[in-house]
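Re: the 469-residue chain
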Amino acid sequence: MKIETHDDADKAPLSHGAYASTDAGTAAMEKDSAIGEVTRVGMRRYRASLAAVTPQSKRNTVIGDERRCVLAISLGSANSEGAKFAACIRWIADHFDECALLVADGIYHHTLQVVGDISLGESRARALQAGRDFMTQYERVVAPHRKRCHFEWQLNSRMMEGQRFRRYLADFQHLYQQNEVYGALVDEFSDQYLHTVLGRRGPISDDQLAIKRQCGREYLVEECAIYTVMSEEGWRVFLYPGAIKTFEQIAEGRVPEAPAALRQLTIAALRLNRGAMYFADSDAAPFAAPVYDGPSSGNGTGNGNGDVNARVNARVNSDAVGQDILADFGDRDWQCLLSYTTRRRYLAGDMLVCDGNDQRILYILLRGNLEVLLGDWRQNHRLRQVAILGPTSLVGVPTFVHGHPQTGTVAALGDCEVLVLHPKQFARMQNKDPALAAALQSDIGRLLQGPHGDGARHGTRHGAALSPS
C-alpha cells in the first residue's frame, strides 16, 4: 500500500496491505467525512536528556538505582507543555518504573494574579480548573507509555489541604524571616519568576511590583512545603525540564536549617533539544495523533481517544483492495525477510516519507498505523488526512520500483514499527533467497496493477520484472 500515483486513480483508501493512491482523497472523504476533516500541523519534536544532578554525588546513581521520580509540572510554563512535555514523558518511561506527575495547580493562582491582577478567589478557581484541564488534555500523551512506567497524576492543591503541609509552610515562612541564605534564595527566585512571567510588559508602579514580588515569594515557599511532604512520602527524585536554583542549593546543603526531608531530595535537570518534525492535531493541541490499544491504566483515567480508536479500526478493517499483502508469508519467510531489512520505530506523528521525495526505500508496516496526508507542509505546515494504513501495508512502492517522486506524505498515526528495505538489500535477496524475493515481488506487482487492472498506467504490467534499477 502506498501513497503514490501519477495521472489517475480513485482507489479505495485503505486496508491491511492495500494500495491507496494519494489522489484518492475525494473518494476517501465521500466514504468517511471524518477522514477528510482531519488536518495536521507541522511541529518540532524535542528530545530530553539528563543535564545535571544535584547533589553531584548522585549523578551516576539517579538512573538505575532510583526507580521512582516526580515530574514537576509548572502550569503556564512552555517547558511543561506540548512536545516538550511529551519528550519528558518518553525519557521518564525509558528510565523509571514509577512517576508522580505533580501538577502545580495549588500555587498557580500566584502566577494568574501576577499576570492578570485578579482577585484571590477568582485566581484560585481558575488555577484549580487549569490543573484539571491539564490532566485531561495531556493524558493522551501519557497513556501510550503506561505499560512501561506507572504514571500517577497528583494535584498539589490536594496536598495543601493537609496538616503536614500547613506545618511545613509555617516552618518555611519562619525560615525566610530568620535565615539569610534561604531568604536570599527566595528573593532571587521571586525576581526571576517575575521576569519570566511578565516578560516585556510595560513598567508597573512600586506598589504593584511589591505585591507581585510577594506572590513570587509565596509561590516558592509553598512549593518547598509541598516537596517536603512528598519527600516524606518516599518521593526523593524530582525532575525539572530546566532547573530551579533554590532546590539545587538546598540539596547541596547550603541551607542546613531546612527540614531534613527537603535536604534529602535529588534534583535532576532535564535538557530539551529540538528534534525532527512531527505532525500535530492543531496549533492549539500540539500533540501527535496516537492510537491506543485499549483503555489506559492508572487513576481510573481512560485515554479519552475511544472515538479515534473506533474510527481507525473501522477504516483499517474496511475497503480492502485485493488480497492481504504478504498474507502467504509464514514464520520462516518473515524471519528471512528480517535478515534483509532494518527494523525501525517511529513515534506518533513522525514522518516516514514526504511529498516529492525520490529516495528508493520500501517500508513494510509491522505494528501500528500510518496516515496518508496531502498538502504542501513546507509552505503552510498543514496537511489533510486522506487514508489510514494498517499492518503489512507497503509504503513507497512506485518510488522503490520506478524512482517516481512521492506525491504525498506518510506519517505515523501512533507509535509504530516498520521494516525498511533498500534496493541493494532486495537485490541480495533475489540472489540468495529467490523464492522469497519472488513472493514479495508478486505482491508488489499486484499493488501496482491495482484492483481495476490499471497497473500499466503506473508503468508496470502484471508479472513484469519489478527489480529496482
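The longest helix spans residues 206-232.
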